[in-house]
Amino acid sequence: QLQLVESGGGLVQPGGSLRLSCAASGFTLDNYGITWFRQAPGKEREGVSCISRNGGSTNYADSVKGRFTISRDNAKNTVYLQMNSLKPEDTATYYCAALGTVRTWCVMPELKYDYWGQGTQVTVSA
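Structure (tokenized):
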């Protein structure tokens, strides 16, 4: 079964950190750019960060620049989102999405994605 699986969400206090993982099952991520999205209740889905297939290009939403870091380990078939200095407004369900591409840069969002994960909940609250 071809799928993306997110993990690492949870409840954290403001100022805390979490690391989300996006693991591919049934296919390898080497040829895929990855984007992390989030969606809070009542709000539109927001692109958070993207990383190119080789990891050489990354982009971040202004709201997370300097606090979040995206990375990938193709040997582990996994992309990570390190989230530091978390704020209550970061509370959302976080999703990863994969697009097969030959590009070595990423844009956010892409026009389409080939695979989506089921999401992992992040709650930032005291």
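The mean pLDDT is 96. The longest strand covers residues 92-100.
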